[in-house]
Amino acid sequence: MKRTGVFICHCGINIAGTVDVKKVAQELSQHAGVVHAEDYVYMCSDPGQNLIIQAVKDKKLDHVVVACCSPNLHETTFRNASKAAGLNAFRCEIANIREQCSWVHKDRAKATQKATKITKSIIEKVRRDEALEALSVPVTRKALVIGGGIAGIQASLDLANSGYEVILVERSPSIGGHMIQLSETFPTLDCSQCILTPKMVEVSKHPKIKLMTYSEVQDISGYVGNFKVKILKKPTYVNKDKCNLCDECTKVCPIVVPNEFDLGLTGRRAIYIPFPQAIPATYTLDIKACPGLLPIACGKCADVCDVKAIDYDMKPQIVEEEVGAIIVATGFDLYDKENMAEYGYGKIPDVLDGLQFERLCSASGPTKGQILRPSDKKEPKEVVFIQCSGSRDPENHCAYCSKICCMYTAKHAMLYKHHVHDGQAYIFYIDIRSGGKGYEEFVQRAVEEDGVLYLRGKVSKVFEENGKVKVWGVDTLTGKDIEIAADMVVLAQAMRPSQGAQELAKKLKLAMDKDGFLAEAHPKLRPVESVTSGMFLAGAAQAPKDIPEAVAQASGAAAKAITILSQERLFHAPTVAKVFTNLCTGCGMCVEVCPYDAITLKDGKVEVNEVLCEGCGTCSATCLRSAIQVKNLSQNQVHEMINACLGG
Amino acid sequence: MAEEFEPRIVAFLCKWCSSAGSDLAGVSRMEYPANVVPIQVMCSGSISPLYIFSAFNRGADGVLVSGCHPGDCHYIKGNFYARRRLKMVKQLLEYVGLEPERFRMSWVSAAEGTKYTQIIKDFVKELKPLGPQTKLRRTT
To answer: Is the peptide bond before A280 cis (omega within 30 degrees of 0)?
Structure first.
């Protein structure tokens, strides 16, 4: 009979407060094959681990079960301790009696009984566990970064400067993201373009970075250290190596569509360069706007191009790449206009969102940095800024705080005052959240130096009247209703995950939180890792955040990616499928269901490629003869676990 | 007074979504009845129909299978196989005369601790009036 040792952790009172650990130990000591059962206050402590090591040696244990917290937390700790005692690490298993028992029950007798059953089922499993050694696989020492905003740029540069090759994929024609649209940045009032463009140029010139703009990730397969990626390169119809940026093509193009870069405040041609500092510096023919190439309906741009850079025959291309780690930095979009009818957003021309206001303030913007309202190009003398537009409103809009709006609204009001000295800025707010270095002082500066008037309360309605934008609101500090006949209203729209992020998350098998932001592996301790090994998160794709935070997270994600890329080989879980060839009839059903193409039929029997197999076990549930099983979670093991769960 | 019937339930939870969701319920200190003993499997797609019969055979009053939401499977498509396969199991169980309420499938993501808690509460509540499951229980 194999000798099993069971160790029950009190976790202080986290477990022992609800589960009678002594009783569990007593009962398990009677279980068949258990030769050692003891409880201890903190099994994960050094003395706790030493208890395991000592018991394995003294009692010649073949298997160890630790009944404690979730295996996600201390499985590695206890497997390492078992290994240190000379036991095979895969013969140590965790019984989760905290998250799935003591923390969710109050009745001590019932919780104790349940903890005993959970532990017994793991004892039955571990008794049948094989000794396994981790499989070692080579690492592709190259990274993929998805998203060319500040987070993606920073992550790419950090990786490339550490000596690793990077493929940076951006779906729009230029990198830069939303940061390149901003005018100044809080709390220093640095010019956004001035601090970002050097990084963009560095990306474009870096020998280790392969920049793929106007491209989208189409498909991903593989696993940590060895991903295979298919990238769709959309045709720009302009050969960027030939293009000399003469701008003749846009002069002849007859089509005008709203300019995305200026959020529709200006128009652009069907052939266009997104903004003067675009990287790569080249033009793109927007095929959706162009009158058509099949057959060529207009052809004027090609006619005027002296260097023959325009190529109407350019086709979409699928580029296949292999990478070892992936960083997802897909950023944010503003909350949809259609959702904010009460504020007239999208209907009243002088109701703008925060990004549009940035463009108005920007020296490169539609008004060359003059603040003029869109409807009549006059300087607005009274401007109302509305914070939490769509944020912190669980009944109607987004429940969460978009985090950056308090700060950028203070900045907007300040910039407005710097442009229009005799103007008045009003800010409607719920609370001011100015946590961050220099942030509180920045808000104070807006109030004290620039005379911005803060009104604590929500706006109920915004409507047009006599050429003004009327704002009805309430000041909850004085209890008075407020009516302002403003010239312009700026909404601090909530941040949402960028459009298409959900589809990408599905392709990458990344989890999302309830609001659609990408979920981190642990909210506190693994904030830049995704739940999928080898994929990391950076920037506003994970949650609303400002530039310094996005940059910090990007560097963190790059460092995490380097922990993989710097390895010669990675270790792959050996709990993979195993074929019992005497039972296999070669029907091939498992071959068809395997999501990883890890099973092949050869000479009438199936074979498993252990490196490709992820151990999901779909094959074993499909096989009618139980001829394919996952190591250390065989059907026999599960049947015995079921039996133990039911007290048998 | 006779003790209230407490159904015995086995829950097969996939490691990546439902077991993690169940962990979250614990971390958030949500409370639910102690009738369920969880078994963590890698994927709902690995749950053989035999497991369900085995559980009823050994006296389970209810069996729960919970995996990632359709489309969100950690292993790409395992939960689609599970859905198809276990729907057939459910029909078979009904065919042999077992109350359909005794077998339940759900989709619980790693972020849905509240949903997991609610599923357990509802399941236990539904099973109580049915009394012990004897139809498929091994008697010898």
So the answer is: yes
Length of chain A (residues): 648
Integer angstrom CA distances of residue A75 from A101, A493, A535, A644: 17, 44, 21, 21
What is the C-alpha separation between A500 and A326, in angstroms, rounded? 17
CA distance linking residue A240 with residue A526, whole number of Å: 41
AA letter at A23:
K
* CA distance between the termini of chain A: 19
B46/A621 touch (CB, cutoff 8 Å), yes or no: yes
Residue stretches of chain A with pLDDT short of 70: 648
pLDDT digits (tens, 9 = 90+) for A515-540: 999 989 888 888 999 978 899 999 99
Residues of chain B in contact with residue A617, where contact means CB-CB under 8 angstroms, are 41-43, 45-46, 78
Q: Which residue has the higher pLDDT, A116 or B138?
A: A116
Q: How far apart are CA A178 and CA A353, in angstroms?
A: 13
- Interchain pair B26, A100: CB under 8 A: yes
pLDDT tens digits, one per residue of A135-148: 898 999 999 999 99
pTM over 0.90, yes/no: no
8 A C-beta contact, residue A284 and residue A235: no
Identify whether the C-beta of residue A234 lies closer than 8 Å to the C-beta of residue A214: yes
Q: Which residue of A has its CA nearest to B76?
A: A595
Chain A closest CA to B127's CA: distance in Å? 16
Mean pLDDT of chain B: 94
- In A88-238, where does DSSP find H-type helix? 108-126, 150-161, 192-205
Chain B, residues 81-120, CB within 8 A of chain A, namely: 81-82, 85, 109-111, 117
Backbone phi and psi for residue A157, each to the nearest 5 degrees, phi listed first: -65, -40
State how far the alpha carbon of A313 is from the alpha carbons of A88, A238, A418, in Å. 61, 10, 50
Structure tokens at A457: 């309360």
Chain A, window 529-558: residues with a beta carbon less than 8 angstroms from a chain B beta carbon: 531-532
Residue B140 has pLDDT above 70, yes or no: no
Q: Whole-angstrom distance between the N-terminal and C-terminal Cα of chain B?
A: 30
For A16, A642, B97, B102, the CA distances from B89, given in Å and listed in that order, are: 39, 17, 12, 12
pLDDT at residue number A139: 96
Report the alpha-carbon distance of residue A417 to residue A396 in Å, rounded: 32
Domains and CATH numbers, chain B: 9-129 (3.40.50.960)
**Would you say residue B71 has pLDDT above 90?**
no
